[in-house]
Amino acid sequence: MDPALPPNARAAARKSEGLKTLLEQQKFKGIILGIRKDEQALRAKERVFSPRNADGTWNFKDQPPEFWDQYKTECADGEHLRIHPILQWSEIDIWRYTQQEKIPFCDLYLARDGQRYRSLGEKNITFPVPSYAASIEDIIAELEVTKTSERSGRSMDTETEDSFEKLRASGYM
Amino acid sequence: MKEQLRLVIAGHVDHGKSTLIGRLLYETNSLPQGKREEIEAICKNRRTDEMEWSFLLDAFQEERNQAITIDTTQVRLTTPKRDYIMIDVPGHKEFLKNMISGASLADAAILMIDAEEGLREQTRRHAYLLSLLGITQIIVVVNKMDRIRYDEKIFKSISAEIKAYLRSLQAQPLKIIPVSARHGEMIRERGKNLGWYKGKSLLEIMAALKNEKGAELPLRFSVQDVYHRDNKRIIAGRVESGKFEKGQKVLFSPTDAQAMIASIEIWPNDPAKIEATAGETIGITLHESIFVERGYVAAPAENLPMLSDVFRARIFWLTQKPLQVGNIYKMRLGTHETEITVQSIEHVIDMQDLANRPDQSEIKNGEVAEITLRTRKLIPLDSYADNARTGKFVIYESGNVVGGGHVDMKDYPDQRFAVRPKSENITMTHHFLSPESRAQVKDHRGGIFWLTGLSGAGKSTIAMAVERALHEKGYHPYVLDGDNIRHGLNADLGFSPQDRTENIRRVAEVAALMADAGLIVITAFISPYRADREKARAAAPEIFHEIHVLADLPTCEARDPKGLYRKARAGEIGEFTGINSPYETPISPDLVIDTQRNNLAFCGAQVLNYIEQSVTLEEIDVREYRLKLASV
User: Which of B119, B318, B391, B587 has the smallest number of Cβ neighbours within 10 A?
Assistant: First the structure.
């Protein structure tokens, strides 16, 4: 793990290590992830089909062109593709879809004692935000007017200016 | 659910794209809480006093350090009427593929021009690429009006220049608007300094943008896959354009199989779902059990895509390794995936002055060009001009996206309805005479010598000279000449791509009959399409010889024996081969006659010699023939 990472980002980077190990064991050619452009400025620069080197690193300076719903669907041996099917969705889209299709969800997203989690991550570096949204309808109503960002409770994002970029470049989801 | 519209902000480097987005976020109160403070803190850290709006979008360290946008990104702008996804794209030429990746998602565009600098290289390049990407709604924003003291004259001269440029792309700006993004003038509020401008503010103009889905176009349903589920055969795919309903008849390309839509399948199952429109990904079942697979396209019989194995394309190239004639790539058009060969590069287009540069041997990274592509099999195609949803394709090399482009089928025939016997009650009757016995009587074989080349290359002249020479030597030749045949047998045909194809089909059939009768048939037709010549060969493959009568366009135009080039250049003749209709050079002709370098006598002798070699009965043949006769 990169010792230059600030402490909270290091905690997050442990997830990347686990993912790397799994990729090595299973030799996956592609993994499907639920990241979205509206979550975070760096994720906004992602592609739907994003190739990764054997060690999981993201060469964000040289990303493949992607247009007209055609994607880079092949990659070399040892590489894998990160596939982001809901990249263009927004946070509120997720909740509306969850409601429409009656998809069960973790109740940490619902408010308790004036607080709820809008984004779930590692225990020690993820914090609840002030909210009274106690049902999925409340969540949607809250998101229609909110001015706080979804990941405001994820401390590793903004610990230092470049902490999230370092995390993602080295394979963080 | 609230409507959303994707809006790309394009333009030259430093003309204020990121500043405008920052200002729009601020004016619409769309910034997340704390975001402004976060950026302010970073700016303070970096010891810059002024608020750097671009940091909202330029999230990469390298982007911030160099103060440039490298990759595309997007932010959401909230207004009471609808949300805008603002797509920021890099203005630097090196990051063109990132610009394309971002802009291709947009429904509309804002083209930024710095009032102080006017139109620059990337202004034109971006405008050109926006039109290639099919973005027709373009708002031109002339920014930094404060820097030119809000001068109306300068604004008007920039307006005229960009209008003229867009007009030559068959595009026009929705509106041209003077703003100062930094001071927030004519964004939401009108400000005090632009009293002479009577138009609407930027946010008002944005509110009038349309969200087009392509439902008004003819139906195209591209097949993704076929599933078997609960004893049903479900054809899954996307409605690329138009709409259809349960009970409608559709025809699948490229097979021509017709079927009626029995049901529309969605999840969870909904029997009330009886129609589908552009943009929907759904399943259908059919009444008839016909073969369908990924890549097939369903369309109404009265408005079908064309079928062709050759097409013209306007492409943009996005990789270091140049595109060259003869190269083979993979192409994806909708769900259809096929191999393509570059047949020719017509010209590279200079995006600055829009000039066509012919005689280019390759297309380099970042260039736009017109090329001709060939596929192995017939594929369903729409011209981009007819259907912007289905008339575009992406080019791959070794699994990487390397380019994209538009299909242009103008002047190419639809090969769907290649003539087939109309009646099924046809039984071929066999002759008692064999080709050998006919040849024996004439003392030479029959054959077809198919001269192809541009008008003025010398086809008819050579054909007539060789016919006489053969006759004098005791052979039995006959020339089928283009203009002569069009006076009689083909008097009903014109010069449209379809008519050209039918013209050649009839000539090929007549030539095959005459050659079967034992004659030496020399044909003199431009026959510009490779597919048609291949079909002519198929009418009598054993005895067909393709002879390319070669002279380049300037030479033929200088000769102009019938005065046709002059008329074509004057616009009196449409669809003239070489001028405004394509000529497809033979790939491997049996003989090439260069009438540009050699005189008529030499060329005639070459053809005569070749024909004699091809039709002469060799001694061994005669002996075999006699043996055969003896054994009967």
Answer: B587
Confidence grade of residue B69 (pLDDT, cut at 50, 70, 90): low
pLDDT mean over A103-128 = 89
Helix B459-472, helix B600-615: angle, nearest 10:
60
Burial of residue B498, with CB atoms counted within 10 A of its CB: 0-12 exposed, 13-18 middle, 19 or more buried: middle
Say if residue B101's pLDDT is above 80.
yes
Q: Would residue B314 be called left, alpha or beta, if left means φ above 0 and alpha means ψ between -120 and 50 degrees?
A: beta
3-class DSSP state of B407: strand
Can you tell me the distance from the alpha carbon of B409 to that of B391, in angstroms, rounded to the nearest whole number? Answer: 10
d(CA A34, CA A169): 17
In this prediction the pTM is 0.77
Phi, then psi, of B392 in degrees rounded to 5: -135, 155
Q: Sign (positive/negative) of CA torsion B593, B595, B598, B602?
A: positive
CA B42 to chain centre: 47
Active site residues per annotation of B = 527
Cα–Cα distance, B118 to B165 (Å, whole number): 13
Chain A residues with a Cβ under 8 Å from any Cβ in chain B: 37-38, 40-42, 44-45, 47, 60-61, 63-68, 70-76, 88, 90, 96, 147-149, 152, 158, 161-162, 165
The verdict on a CB contact (< 8 Å) between A65 and B33 is no
Angle at A49 between CA A46 and CA A52, to 5 degrees: 80
Q: Which of B603, B593, B620, B621 is nearest to B445 (CA)?
A: B621
Please say whether the beta carbons of B515 and B540 come within 8 A.
yes
Q: What are phi and psi of B305, to 5 degrees?
A: -70, 160
**Contacts for A1-7: CB closer than 8 Å, 24+ residues apart:** A2/A166, A2/A170, A4/A166, A5/A163, A5/A166, A5/A167, A6/A156, A6/A159, A6/A160, A6/A163, A7/A159
Q: Which residues pair with residue B108 across a beta bridge? A: B7
Strands (E), B188-305: 220-229, 232-241, 243-245, 249-253, 257-265, 275-277, 281-286, 297-299
> Which residue's structure tokens are 């091809």?
B614
CB atoms under 10 Å from CB of B329, counted, come to 17
CA distance B103 to B9: 8
What residues in B contact A149, CB-CB < 8 Å? Answer: 32-35
Tell me the three state secondary structure of residue A56: coil
Helices (H) and strands (E) in chain A, counts: 4, 5
The confidence score (pLDDT) of residue B59 equals 62
**B31-52 mean pLDDT:** 70
Q: CB-based burial of residue B19 (10 Å sphere; 0-12 exposed, 13-18 middle, 19+ buried)?
A: buried
Q: Hey, what long-range contacts does A99-108 have (CB within 8 A, 24 or more apart)? A: A99/A136, A99/A137, A99/A140, A105/A136
Lookup: tokens for B439: 């040849």
Residue B116, CB half-sphere, CA atoms under 13 Å: how many?
A: 9
- pLDDT exceeds cutoff 70 at B621: no
Question: Which residue is associated with the tokens 């999981």?
Answer: A56
Report pLDDT for B108.
Answer: 92
The pLDDT tens digits of the residues spanning B333-371 come to 999 999 999 999 999 998 888 888 888 899 999 899 999
Please provide residue B511's backbone torsions phi and psi, each rounded to the nearest 5 degrees.
-60, -40
Distance CA A150, CA A143 (A): 9
The verdict on B400 touching A (C-beta cutoff 8 Å) is yes
Read off the pLDDT of residues B397-455 as tens digits, 9 standing for 90 and up: 999 999 999 999 988 888 877 655 666 676 777 887 888 888 888 899 999 999 999 99
**Separation of CA B402 from chain center:** 16
- Decide if A60 and B400 are in contact by the 8 Å CB cutoff: no
